[in-house]
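Dear support,

We are seeing what looks like truncated structure output for some complexes. This example has two components. We would appreciate it if you could run it in full and send us the complete token output so we can diff it against ours.
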Amino acid sequence: MDRDLFSHIDTDLNSISYLSLNYDHFDSALSSIVSSPSAAPTPPGPNDSLVLRELIGRLGTICNNKSASVGAVDHSANTSCYSTPLSSPPKSSLHPLPNMNPNPNPMPFAPDPGFADRAARMPCFGGGPHMAMSGQLSRVSSSQSLMDAGMTGGVQLEGELPVRENGSGGRGANNGRKRKAGVKGKGKEASLASSGTVNSKISEEDQSAKRCRPDCKAGEKKGGTEEKNGNCSENNNGDRENKNDSDSNNANAKPVEPPKDYIHVRARRGQATDSHSLAERVRREKISERMKLLQDLVPGCNKVTGKAVMLDEIINYVQSLQRQVEFLSMKLATVNTPSDVNMDNLLQKDMPQACSGSMQQPLYRSAFSYPNQPQVAPLNSLLATNSIPNLGMQPSSNLPFDGFGNANPQIGGFWEDDLQSVVQMGFGQNQEAALSSQSFQGSGPSSSDMKIEL
Amino acid sequence: MQALHFLQALARIARAAPKPAHSARTRQIRHAAYASMAHSSRSSRRTWSRALLHRLRQRQRPGRLLTVRRRVRIVTPITSRPEEPARAETLRQLVPGGRGMEYCNLLEETADYVQCLRAQVQLMQTLLDAFSS
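Here is the complete output from our reference environment:
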């Protein structure tokens, strides 16, 4: 049901997702979250309620999933739904918040103290800083702002709770470790921080530093606890460098992202207490990103989940590849002995052969009359067809052209004019002319030797 | 680039006096394979490629008592990297130059190394098929 709501947004997201993660849920959810705030910011009217309801419903569905990206989705969804009115028009919407701080409206938040407690304890809930803040006032004020914006946020949020609990139960295993560590600390604040950290860890969004800055801004405006303010100032200092990097990344990927990132910053508020955890989170995200890359490279790794097992698979694969190289080199050593003369010929013939298969064949046959031609020809065809596509490297296919062209003045009358045209074609495609020329110079003398032989 | 380099090296090995020692040729071919991998255009900027070339040169000259080149890099000792999984050490041993790297860089290098290894294996397999047909 929620998927229908967001199906149209998914396409939008795919165009703007700046992180090359392959989390299905994450992408779709994030897209919905990202695009919904973009739609919502300016008219905080009827759109917001719909957006919020959608987001909450989305969170509910996502919470029930057990993937690692759930936390991120919850996190970002939670963040965005609260950030929308607050950060997108950062100044205007935040102003009413401090006013509301002293007298929170208890109506939709009658169980607010209990709510906040539960939020603090639940890791997935804790990801939303405005909800899991040590200061319940800020939580209330955020919801107040939402309510004032015309959304029935309170009702929706309360409806969110049971869903959250379901989700938190599913992810308790992941978060339990850090949650316990946090609880042993300073009580609620520690739990908030730790749960926030966990959420940050789980949420695979980069630019977390970026998000933290607007978060801090929002937090300060909300009049959160001193801890929050202190953290925000720290975060601001620590975030700036990260923000620049992520901004540059963003600029390269999606110019639209920076405003959206500000929306997500609020998710990080509750967890990032200092620049260390921020850097740690960024590092963890980098590591997970690279693990995804490796997962795509290593065959048969798609079903495996978890870093430990995947690492074992990667190690096995690298070992098997190295063993294969040894084995193949041994076999090549045995096979290569009778074909000493062919290698030079093959090299000379191989390059043009690689560029255009059939055109060169008659030319070669006429130019070169080798006794072991039958052995060479299949190799040429093989190399032409196999090696280039197998290696999948454009430069390697272009190099023969360049080398060929460079050897031309030396070989001179060896090659027909047809070859010249082929070489011109190769030059046009080539990007590594210098490199290939250098590499091919070595075989220049050998080509002259061939000329003499013939 | 990789294929070209390897073929040239093979030609060189074949042209050289064909030693009857099978193991010597095997070693030479293996050396050529790794050298061509390291010289590949895609990997010339990588840490593992430099480390691999260094290792190959070291093996060629066994009499060097003093290694002049030292990689000056301040990296936390291997024992004090608790956040890494247990198998990270094995991966470091496998990937050339993996000892001095941090974990996330190690993963990136591994990805590139795997790509080059796969290409090299495919190339050698193709050559083998061509020679044996």
